[in-house]
Request: fold
Amino acid sequence: MTQPANPQPPRGWILYDDSCGVCRRWVALFANTLRRHGFGLAPLQAAWVRDELALEPDRLLDDLRLLLADGRQLAGADVYRHVMRCIGWAWPLYLFSITPGLRRVFDGSYRTFAANRHRVAGACGLRRH
Reply:
């Protein structure tokens, strides 16, 4: 792995689409909380991220991703579940996301939002990078 500018966080790297206004706003709002809980943040477009994930270029920006300290990778709604489980005040949201039946709602909501995030960013006036 090509080393990122910052040392490896204890829990891993949350990797987001830096061309998405919503994603950049989300990162800005929660960066301090995520860092306090052991997560680093990096754009999916960073060279070291592209190299580490080894995904086809057309799949790289499909989902939010989490590169765990042990090398495992999570994507999409599973990233949110993992992070919520690590943050005390988010635990009730984590329980919602794993409850049978509600898990499908959570996953479907994530998938719908992810597929339309650039439209949402445009409608909210969050410019693309």
In short: The first strand starts at residue 12 and ends at 16. The domain at 12-123 is CATH 3.40.30 (Glutaredoxin). The mean pLDDT is 87.
